[in-house]
């Protein structure tokens, strides 16, 4: 594991680095103890590593906006339609209320047969081919297909949506 000692070393920390892949927890412990708030230069983001600090950041959307994204990858801007994860109140609240009924435990449970069908088909293909690319054959197409169906995309437009 790469040694992390203080904020300067923490800024070079790569949470996706090979040296942390098998056991990232020692690095997390050092970050919590020595650099609970560190800027990760490689990704241009702030890493907050203590639970209470994370909870405070999540509650204070006016100071810690999600509008430019809540992850390491660029997201659509509000002008481009955005996504709920990278939207601040009051827009986030309005959109969340509009879709909440579609994400209740009962509504999600009703999707189980369709999800099982899609995963089953993907696994049949994998067995026939003798290999599987999990991301390309399951993790990406299954949820995007389900979401496209929920939103009523016609079959002929689903491939475009799923790109």
From TrEMBL:
Bilayer-spanning residue ranges: none
A GO molecular function held by the record: iron ion binding
InterPro entries listed in its UniProt record: Cyt_P450_B (IPR002397), Cyt_P450_sf (IPR036396)
Domain of life of the organism encoding this protein: Bacteria
UniProt family annotation: Belongs to the cytochrome P450 family.
This protein's name: Cytochrome P450
Organism annotation: Actinomycetospora succinea
